[in-house]
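anyone seen this seq b4? input:
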Amino acid sequence: MDKKELTEQEIRTRYITPAVKNAGWQEHQIREEYQLTAGRVIARHNTCIRDTNTIKRADYVLFYNFHTPIAVIEAKDNKHKISDGMQQALGYAEMLNIPFIFSSNGDGFIFHNKYSGENEKIEKEISLLDFPSPDKLMDIYKQYNNIDSAKEKQLSSSYYTENDKIPRYYQLNAINNTYNAIINGEKRVFLVMATGTGKTYVAFQIAWRLWIAGIKKRILFLADREALRNQTYTGDFSPFKENMTIVTNRKVDKSYQIYLALYQSITGQNDTKNIFKQFSKDFFDLVIVDECHRGSASEDSQWREVLEYFDSASQIGLTATPKENKEVSNISYFGEPVYTYSLKQGIEV
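predicted toks r here
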């Protein structure tokens, strides 16, 4: 059969997938029809639904390891030029924070390398036989990001997978960006995610990766509502099991590694009510503040007092609505967000 008569799926099956596998990519590293979005939200008959016609899927996303997407491939049938999928692939790569982008019509690949050097072309055509191996792409990635062997070992720590729940692309971006900031030595990290996009789940996955890698061994999660704290304990954070406890307004048990607390229950007007001071200042090496816009950034707030007491710990601020005014500034305390996923993005994608 004439190659130009083949469908896009046939081009993928006969030419693109074999080229990728021949380069050393394993089955579990190749994710086809990788769904990025659920479709644009539209109003209909006094309700909101997702328009399934606007769902975005990448033809291929290649993962170096379970949590690191490193390349995207957009396929077209052979009636198209080899480069015709590039613009679409670049859009997906932007969403996924991916540096290596490929377009193919089955004749070869156009390779777009965001990490190309000064004397290198950012785009070049390569044959089906020259598709790069996982290690070749990862070597470029490590060199560009100054990742040495020690940091590479830290990056190998994966998120929790035993409940079969897989982070959506924006959650994975939030997890990876925050994790990378922490292992690169950032002391304060700010993360902005719209309500309903899984902030607490993201917080758990960040904490899990840092904890399981032995990078952060004692973690304090601060909430402002009892219902949220309890839901966190029985829900997203439950895989910590017997390593986790809830801090109440009495003498603390220092034998745990993960602590969930209400700031109201560990602070007060005098030292007898400042339960957090039962811990030494260096007891925690990570403090996560949920809904940090509610007052932790204010210099005279009770949360701020807790953060300053544990100032040797890395601190992560999570919010859906960052607060910026003369009295309160999340950014002045935590810094610019390492990742933002807005309500507008959630509705439009």
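The chain has two domains: 3-144, 150-348. The mean pLDDT is 88. kinda curious what u guys think
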